[in-house]
Amino acid sequence: MQEHDMSWVRTEMALAQPAPPTERGAYAWVRKNLIGSVGDTILTVLGIAIVVWVLPQIINWAFINAVWTGPDRTVCTTASQGGIQPDGWTGACWAFVNAKFGQFMFGTYPIEERWRPILVAVLFVALLVPMLIPRVPRKGLNALLLFVALPIVAFVLLVGGVFGLPHVETPRWGGLLVTLSLSFVGIAVSLPMGIVLALGRRSKMPIIKWLCVVFIETVRGIPLITVLFFASVMLPLFLPEGVSFDKYLRALIGVSLFAAAYMAEVIRGGLQAIPKGQYEGADSLGLGYWQKMGLIVLPQALKLVIPGIVNTFIGMLKDTSLVLIISMFDLLGVVKQNFADPNWATPQTPKSGLIFAAFVFWLLCFGMSRYSMYTERRLDTGYKR
Amino acid sequence: MASQEILRGEPSRGSFINDPRIRSLFFQTLVVILLFSSIWWIVHNVIENLQRLHIASGFGFLKSRAGFDISDTPIAYTSDSTYFRALVVGLLNTIIIAVAGIVLATVVGFLIGIGRLSQNWLIRKICTVYVEIFRNIPPLLVIFFWYSGVLAVLPPPRESIHLPLGSFLNQRGFYLPRAVWGDGSWLIGVALLLAIAMAWFVAHRARQRQRATGQQFPVFWTSVALIIGLPALAYLLSGMPLTFDFPKQSTFNLTGGFWIKPEFLSLLLALSFYTAAFIAEIVRAGIRGVSKGQTEAAAALGLRSGPILRLVVIPQAMRIVIPPLTSQYLNLTKNSSLAIAIGYPDLTATAGTVLNQTGQAVEGVFIMMIAYLVLSLVTSFVMNIVNARMALVER
Considering only CA atoms, which of A196, A325, A375 is closest in space to residue A268? Predict the structure, then answer.
């Protein structure tokens, strides 16, 4: 009866075989990603058509046919328009950007005083870069310098009037200087204001809660232009006779109030995401309200909503371009103002200037969003699913 | 019971300063006093300033003659009309641009968002590039780009670019054939309404029948046939009253047809392309938010890819998509106020002109705020209804 035991156990692993040739290498990738099905193939052909149609035009316009330097409009116009280019030429007029670069950066800030904004920018970068790199120590001191000392130094340097520095009125500021200073101060003001508003909205005191709700919802319901109108035409009426605000300051107030309302909603989201046990734990330790919020709740809540906060910053940087409607000249405003310069009025000027401005804004916003994604990954402490 | 009675008694406290209720009362009283005194101060200053500048307050100015022209008027308006009518024209223009922008942005945004999830590498990359470019540029800059960068350098009317369907494009705008509704064309409208009602009825009955018997009915094709067929039939029966007025080229300009001004066109393109980038991200997040198990379970039940998308993925994705989509619609409506930068007469632009002419800043800004708040509330209300229909019914 005893038969051979047919069972067999393999004691060595089989050697791994390479994937079949249809599943590896460039061919498999193309098959999977470009020509997976009939519909896919049609889409690929369509996509290639778009790329082939658009890309050479862009490269031609922006690089090959572009004019990089030149004294005035003649280099960027065709013969029939009174220039030196052959008829039918189209290309970017980077010569315009080149010639106006100083204005795009500083507006009409006096040329002999331009070392001041440059110095502020250098200080800003010198303080910002170590702030952004997590490994660099002494973050507290760094933050203090960046958010407290730098604004004071920058104010003294940019406005002047003391220490023998000539006074430069804010109407002479312009370009990237206005864009960056408005958004930096806006960020520095709107974050604490947003925190206070968010805490107020979650407060148990009904009057404070409703005041915050009304403020947040009203500001979020109206466009920034209306807020800027409010700041530019109504604030002067609110003040007693003789007291008047600088236009720059008024725009700053408008932008900060607007951003604070959005910031408050972002932070409220973070506050709501903190489990109740954290609040109760803090209470049971005998912490007061501000200790509880400052030491336990806010550090966790803010960490959760970093992407939202950075998105609000990005929105704010983009929104500062709106100050041109109350006739202030930020980067976009200066670029647009220079279209009217008869020395440079060509059909290519507006496109070139705007694409340059778009590139600057894009770099700043894209950089911020990438950095926030990096921080989000680094700080991910497991709250998110 | 007895223990509750004991607990209800207040525990003794060291000092009333530490009583949270007294503290909260104190702080709130303080805030109210501060608030009212600052409001009083502001009102006092405003009244004094207005008297000094000899500006009458109140809304009486709304009845006086406006005296300025508006380039786009959806309702009859001349410079002899009242300020009130000017503001209404502005409000209507805002609504027109907002609705058109929302429709276009939704279409483009959904296409790009789905494109970012495509199997196709090339399409995915193209859509990513689009989103990353448009998300990071101020909308105002995009508006200027279309307005002074693209549309302003188009050829003059004499060298208009011919487009299909008898439309033209030149630096003065976009010219389309205009539909001329002749006598009896009301029949077409009635037929269309009737067709929609019938399609709804068919869908309703088909759903009932499927629940009762399990038999399916081709609702979609029936509805298409009804909605196209009935108005076409009405068109033929009423003697073909619909004709088209094509734009014609004359010596200096184009005459006839339907004229879309460059201001409107650049505003519409900029707003919808900008918002579409955000909508695309929302759609992508929504579809990716539906767990893969759902798709696999549906496939295991034997559904094909079309029905999986239509019956399983999209209804669940919409729940994630609709709330942020609403705030994008609100943003688009608010961003339409950028029209003022290129001179499209929307609410902000007309109210700004009225404000400058009359000097009644307080009333002007107040009207603007109220109008936008109402618009936002209406949009939120409509989207909340949609959301309620889509939301998960929890038992």
Answer: A196
Give the separation between CA A328 and CA A232, rounded to whole angstroms: 11
In a domain, B200, yes or no: yes
B224 lies in the same domain as B292: no
**pLDDT tens-digit map of B78-87:** 777 788 888 8
Structure tokens at A201: 């909205």
In the predicted structure, residue A223 carries a pLDDT above the cut 60: yes
Residues B371, B275 within the same domain: yes
Interface residue A8 vs chain B (CB under 8 A): no
- The predicted structure's pLDDT at residue B128: 92
Both B226 and B280 in one domain: the answer is: no
Domain annotation covers residue B191: yes
Q: The tokens 């990353």 sit on which residue?
A: B132
Residue of A165, A173, A201, A207 lying closest to A331 (CA atoms): A173
Residue A355 identity (one-letter amino acid): I
Q: If you measure CA to CA, which chain B residue comes closest to A212?
A: B31
Confidence of residue B130 (pLDDT cuts 50, 70, 90): very high
Domain boundary among B214, B245, B276: B245
Structure confidence at residue B1 (pLDDT): 45
Q: Could you tell me if B271 and B386 lie in one domain?
A: yes
Question: Tokens representing B322?
Answer: 């609709």
A332 in contact with chain B, both atoms CB, cutoff 8 A: yes
Contacts of A362 in chain B (CB under 8 A): 133, 136-137
Q: Compute CA distances B375 → B92, B369, B370, whole Å.
A: 11, 10, 9
Domain total of chain B: 2
Interchain contact, B141 vs A207, CB within 8 Å? no
Kindly list the residues from chain B whose CB atom is less than 8 angstroms away from the CB atom of residue A314.
136
* Longest Cα separation, chain A: 118
Asked if B79 and B66 touch (Cβ cutoff 8 Å), the reply is yes
Helix (H), strand (E) at residue A55: helix A38-59
Say whether B141 and A325 touch across the interface (CB within 8 A). no
What CATH number does residue B272 fall under? 1.10.3720.10
Q: How far apart are CA A282 and CA A300, in angstroms?
A: 13
Residue B19 lies in a domain: no
Whether residue B391 has pLDDT greater than 90: no
Q: Which of A92-101, B20-29, B155-164, B263-272 has the lowest mean pLDDT?
A: B155-164
Please give the residue range of the domain that contains residue B93. 83-135+267-390
B296 and B348 fall within a common domain: yes
Average pLDDT over residues A299-321: 86
Contact B127, B135 (CB under 8 A): no
d(CA A197, CA A175): 32
Tokens of B239: 């003697």
